[in-house]
Design brief:
Distance between the termini: 53 Å
Strand content: 35-45%
CATH topology of one domain: Immunoglobulin-like
Oligomer: single chain
Structural class: mainly beta
CATH architecture of one domain: Sandwich
Helix content: under 10%
Largest sheet: 5 strands, antiparallel
Number of helices: 0
CATH class of one domain: Mainly Beta
Shape: globular
Amino acid sequence: MRIAIKYGSPATPCGQFTYGEVEDYTVEIAGNPIPDPVPTQYTLNVDNNYLLSRTGDLGDAAVWVIEKDGAIVLQRNAANELTYQYFNNTTGSQFRVWLSAGGQQVSNIVEYEAGQVVSTHDISVDANYQITRNGFLNEPLTWVIEKDGVVVLQRNAANELDYTYFNNVDNSYYRVWLEQFVNGSYEVVSNVVYYVPGSVVVIPPEPPEPTLYTLNVDNDYILSRTGELGDSVTWEIEKDGVIVLSRNASSEMVYQYYNNAFGSKFRVWLAAGGQQASNIVEYEAGSVVSTHDISVDANYQITRSGVLNEPLTWVIEKDGVVVLQRYAANELDYTYFNHVNNSYYRVWLEQFVNGAYEVVSNVVHYVPGVAINAYNATLTNSYDLIRDGSPGDSVSWVLEENGVVILEKDASPSLLYNYGGLIADSNYRAWLVQMVNGQQTVVSNILEFTPGLSFGTFSLSIDPSYRLYRSGSLGDNVQPRFRS
């Protein structure tokens, strides 16, 4: 048997390397009999919410094995748990789950298809567009009403057995269903009724539009689509069951939503002419806990928090392709020396957790040849957005209102911009972006402000027990805001 090891690139069967070696070993293959299979010791079950349960006792040396669409995606220690729920049940995928011990299967195999939710309620619609449901009062249900493919209402249905939506528009296409919060997410728990005001009362479902585009999302929640620049499509982003953004996607092949609140569940698709025109990608923001902070300086040196000897790995990506995975246990900083000007780099830390590599840090971005935070943005008391640099710079303002991007404005003609549609007590964020190598890149600090509040009206402090104190008086019309 020959073993070849070479640093930095795949080894060849023979040769001399500056860093590496080739060694030959004699191996004797004995004719030992194949051991008898381990008898099935455990019984597995799965419920309608994909919660797995096993027989046996806590402390058993067993491992959950989860197979998705024919490929094993997780092996997890089951010794300390009798139940487990896998949280990446992609709709439409086929799953097989079993227990193993010593590399051998030791349970039955349970199979399920994600997305097959049991319908527990019936709803109907009459000639006056009144929706009626079966069941009882005080059930934790929600009416969901969709108009022309966009959700326009989510309403608590616990205290009513019927409801009429009074903002119906003639010749628009409505769908209505019930949802319920089950095991951390909203599930559809009824049939779907359809109607078109001014036309027919109840109509059969329209045949689905062909899926024209394919969407993907990476570990940093960057969305990418197929197709061509100029396609008449929009990004549709749904957060915890509510559509929070419809954004023109004709001029971009990739997009990153900047309000991925930790713990929220997102569904994203492309729409054309009010109809879904792509697959749906799903992700849960912050599903992996970020345990380390990393930063990059003007010389592209990456620095991490923590201590030496932690089992961490640097991961460096160039223009969407991972170009380096480097053991970070013995260093608190690192500089990658193969930079190419105007390429788009992302860097993060990974750690091997529960059988898989997990992202355990924030992600830093930089473009060699383009200064990091190349522009400084400031805000005046009149809510004027001011940037440094020079007129003619190819940058744009991005303005976000209550977590939704509402404006992208060419900032090249002037160093000052004032948006005239600010709403009092709404929360705004503003920053500068620039297209670099096909990527829309943030190139400034981020400003945050709330019109209607005087600067410095209140002061906050915190004690060692994390108790917050504010200035002012009882009765002040203020609300707490938290950002993780």
